[in-house]
Amino acid sequence: MKQHPLCTDPEHGPNVMHLAVPIGLKREWAALETRRQFLGRTGKVLGWAAMASLMGASALRGDTATAGTGASGGGNGEPIGLPNFAPKAKRAIYLFMSGGPPQIDMWDYKPNLAALYDKDVPDSVRGSQQLTGMTAGQARFPIAPSHWQFKRYGVTGTWVSDLLPYTGRMVDDLAIIKSTNTDAINHEPAIMLMNTGNMNAGKPCLGSWLAYGLGSMNDNLPTFMVLQSKLNPKENNQPVSSRLWGSGFLSSEYSGVGLRSSGDPVLYLSDPDGVDREVRRGMLDAVNEINRQTYEELGDPETHSRIAQYEMAYRMQTSVPELADLSKEPQSTWDLYGEDAKEPGTFAYNCLMARRMAERGVRFTQVYKRGWDLHGDVTGVLPTLCAETDRPSYALVTDLKQRGLLDDTLVIWAGEFGRTVYSQGGLSHENYGRDHHPRCFTTWMTGGGVRTGITYGETDEYSYNVVKDPVTVRDLNATILHYLGIDHNKLTYKFQGLDQKLTGPTPASVVQGLIA
Amino acid sequence: MDAGAGRLLPKDRATRRAWLGAFLLILVLVLLPWLIRLDGKPHGDFEQFLGRFHPLVVHLPIGFLVLVPVLEIAARFKPGLREAAGFVLGLAFASCLVALGLGFLLAYGGGSAEPGVTQHMWSGIALTIFALLCVLARPLWFGGEAQYVYPALLSGCMLVLIWAAHEGGSLTHGSNYLTQYMPAGLKRILPGGAPTSGSFYIQHIHPILDANCVTCHGAGQVKGGLRLDSYDALMRGGADGAVIVAGKPESSLLIQRVTYAPDHKGFMPAEGRPPLRAEEIAWIKAWIQQGASQTAATLSGISFREEQEEPPPQPVGDYTALLPEIQQMDLAQGAKLKPVSRKPEDGLVLYTVDVAPQFGDVQLAQLLKFAPYIVEADLGRTTVTNASFDTLARFTHLRALHLEGTGITGDGISKLAPLTQLTYLNLSGTMVSPAAAAQLRSFRNLRHIYLYNTPAQPIAEAPAANAIRKD
Fold first, then answer.
1. What is the pLDDT of residue B297?
2. Cα angle at A500 between A251 and A299, to 5 degrees?
3. Within a 10 A sphere around the Cβ of B439, how many other Cβ atoms?
4. Please, which of A33, A161, B88, B105 could form a disulfide with B47 given CB 3.0 to 4.6 Å?
């Protein structure tokens, strides 16, 4: 066979045609190795190699760092090939209401329950469900109708509780999902399931999957950021831990980066006295060199992550102060978000920060608001929780909309489960408690790709079971990935012999009714 | 019955009596609507109670009648079935009578007298008569006489059955039930298909009413004296007066009824049918607000979305050959050109956010080589100026352009007019003047224009939701 002109290797290797192999094989070889096929294939390989470095984690940083751990597709330096299709949303903001907001008091309007005050929830409704240890021992399951009135809002005439006057105003822009349901009944597994797609710790969370799959839009800020809201001691705050925004078996550079709610947003980010930018740079270069040597010696991909993280921290020294500097925000911002937004760490402040991050190309921002675990004193605590979150959520969506960002930003509002229709502990006309309820809870989404102005799914008259269009956590996550241009079955990573994915092995489906 | 009429004359007294009885029955059936007039007034609850079993019982004669020809044909191979066919035919006729009676009670008791109901009644009467004639003709056929009369009657019976069933189905499901999701190609062939172009009313309002309302407010049933299947009828209103008050959506009964609480007695669509979608209500409101015109082609200034009108993205060429160069440019400039998706025809997105302060007109001009492949350019907070419009005009496939927070004032923005693919333009926080913003109105496909915090739309005037969506 003739030597290819670009081939630098001189023609002294054995030629198949001269070897003592059956003539049939020689013919097959000749047929396979035509010049056109050779060129075509080479061209494609070059193209894909270049594409690989453009996509996913940019250039040499990300994917090579995981080489050897066996990432399917991407990990071995091949292109991940994401997004799978043109996305509607480029970034997402997840407002996570940790503790389980009571859908009956906020969204899932059941006016007929008023007549059933203190009647028992029929056994047929509860079925054989296993309850939590907190109410399983109760002799009765008396119905606690919502203490609050509901009003209709918007041209959609959607019923919203009086607790959410601001959210009510934007109801036409939301897709309200009343049929979300989960497999877990206690906080930790339920939050893990919502955030990572699995009740057990150790799996990458949604934000990490997105950072891994879609890469960064801004090299000066983390791809995935986490904002925790300050605790209100009046509320029943369940802990949230870093494994909720951890990267699991993915490289640790895809973990969420938290901003602190007070003082320096990132600890030890500012240079100590007497150390200027140049000294810092010199020190980093030296440390990186040592790390590189370590990598060559040991080959641990986490060393690459460490180098990348040092570099990120260096760039964040200028980008984070700019991000957190609210002095240039006009008065209209405070008129919209409220004065609370001036105080770092409030949910309002975090919503404003989420908007600023969206403007600056942060791919995924997760805001946690704790305190929704309303086992008792619902009428005492719920108004506070709603007052803290109602206006900022509205402000965030409105602000994104007026700035033209809502077209390609996805906003999700969800907790880990709902709350029971029956009262936990004593029921009176003035007060009641509500236990965890996994069978139905209400979430909403808006923004790029979402079919807005709809209510999706229905619950029965007790807001207990889903009777129409159920949406599992898997379906919800598959749908979220879909908005971002990802086929949830294709964003996988080989680990422990499995093609791991956010939605897990149980089949999940994109909820077509929520797609614009 | 014509050919063998002579031979068909009954021979013995008993048969003659049966024929006489049948003739009388047919007479009663034909005269029934005149004996008991359907006057459109409700006539008592018990009649209605019984009548409401009509939709249930009506399926019995359908099943029996369809079974008769099946059995007759099958009897050629299994002669034992011949007898069964006769029995089933008898049952069919009996159940026809019961169903007809119940149907009549339903219409009489409920006070329905609309054209659709009377047509269905006549089809039911015709079917019963046909079934009766079949019963009479079958013994003759069985006895070897009048070979073709019974098969002909039975075939006629099937045709009348289809007519009656279709009329009935149209009453419960609406006349457009079958055609609503018919493939467009098929619709064009059928006469009377929905017009696909024309005024806003034809394009947007009529289809909503047609899909949701005309089942009860159309040619079939005219509940409340209201028909919504034509513009004239819609504007005429019903027993409660006008349902549309041009210019006043809030005072329009139609809007009031569809926006009641779903459990409200007056909520429409009634009887648990799905409510109108938000955007549908918004369109109707906008249409009423602007005069409820039959002919106006478009509405202006109202924020309604027409998802279908977004032009389909035009595929760009294959840029994979340029990838090595793109990569070099990325490294040199710090700006990023990223694929929209794994499909090259989806194009590239330009990100500049991490180098925004150093990215200006010069850097943008360096990207001209890749311009035809770039479908979205994020130039927010960069130092580009009005001079960049010349460069951007050559980004022929640009669909979204972010210029928020730049020093652009809008002079020369009309240079972007040739970008026919452009649907999104963000100018928030720039110094774009009202005059420049006005020029954007002539851009063909540009529907998402953001002018928040600009001289063209100062913050104080900005309504909460201020995306100007052009119609």
1. 66
2. 35
3. 16
4. B105
**H or E segment at B402?**
strand B400-402
**Closest-CA distance of chain B to residue A374, Å:** 29
The distance of B292 to chain A (nearest Cα, Å) reads 18
Chain B environment of A220 (Cβ under 8 Å): 354
Q: Write down the pLDDT at residue A337.
A: 96
**Non-local CB neighbours of B168 within 8 Å, separated by 6+ positions:** B55, B58, B120, B123
- Interchain contact, B323 vs A47, CB within 8 Å: yes
Looking at this protein, which amino acid is placed at residue B343?
K
| Three-state secondary structure call for residue A291 | helix
- Best of B310, B327, B338, B376 to substitute, by most chain A Cβ atoms within 10 angstroms, is B338
Q: Do A454 and B278 touch (CB under 8 A)?
A: yes
Residue A134 makes CB contacts below 8 A (sequence gap 6+) with: A375, A424, A435, A436
Q: What residues in A contact B264, CB-CB < 8 Å?
A: none
Closest by CA to A94, choosing from A398, A386, A448, A480, is A480
Q: Closest Cα of chain A to B408: distance in Å?
A: 16
* Contact between chains at B351 and A401 (C-beta distance less than 8 A): no
Coarse DSSP helix, strand, coil percentages of chain A, rounded to the nearest 5 percent: 40, 15, 45
Strand partners, A493: A500
- Chain CA centroid to CA B163, Å: 24
DSSP assignments along A208-269, one per residue: HHHHHHH--S-TTS-SEEEEEPPP-TTSB-----GGGG--TTS-GGGS-EEE-SSSSSSTT-
In contact, A204 and A254? CB cutoff 8 Å: yes
Query: How is B101-167 classified by DSSP, letter by letter?
Result: HHHHHHHHHHT---HHHHHHHHHHHHHHHHHHHHHHHHHHHHTTSSTTHHHHHHHHHHHHHHHHHHH
HSE-up (13 A, CA, CB side) for residue B267: 14
Phi/psi at B337 (5° precision): -110, 110
Answer whether 0.90 is exceeded by the pTM. no
Asked whether the beta carbons of residue B351 and residue A361 sit closer than 8 angstroms, the reply is yes
Structure tokens at B453: 């915090």
pLDDT, tens digit only, all 516 positions of chain A: 455 555 555 455 566 677 777 777 777 667 666 665 566 555 555 555 555 545 444 333 333 333 322 333 333 333 457 899 999 999 999 999 999 999 999 999 999 999 999 999 999 999 888 888 888 889 899 999 999 999 988 877 899 999 999 999 999 899 999 999 999 999 999 999 999 999 999 999 999 999 999 988 998 999 999 999 999 999 999 999 999 999 999 988 899 998 887 777 777 777 778 888 888 889 889 999 999 898 888 878 788 888 888 888 888 888 888 898 899 999 999 999 999 999 999 999 999 999 999 999 999 999 999 999 999 999 999 999 999 999 999 999 999 999 999 999 999 999 999 999 999 988 999 999 999 999 999 999 999 999 998 999 999 999 999 999 999 999 999 999 999 999 999 999 988 888 999 999 999 999 999 998
H helix runs in B194-277, sequence order? 200, 206-212, 231-236, 253-259
* Spatial separation of the C-alpha atoms in residues B234 and B206, rounded to whole Å: 10
A454–B277 CB contact, under 8 Å: yes
Enter the DSSP assignment of A90: S
Q: Hey, what are B151's tokens?
A: 């098969």
Tokens of B88: 């089933």
Q: What b/e sequence results for A187-222 when a residue is b if at least 16 CB atoms lie within 10 Å of its CB, and e otherwise?
A: bbbbbbbbbbbbbeeebbbbbbbbbbbbbbbbbbbb
Q: Do B426 and A403 touch (CB under 8 A)?
A: yes
For residue B316, the distance in angstroms to the closest alpha carbon of chain A comes to 13
Dihedral pair phi/psi, residue B142, rounded to 5° = -65, -35
Q: Could you tell me which residues come within 8 angstroms of residue A115 by beta carbon, excluding any fewer than 6 positions away?
A: none
In eight-state DSSP terms, residue A311 is H
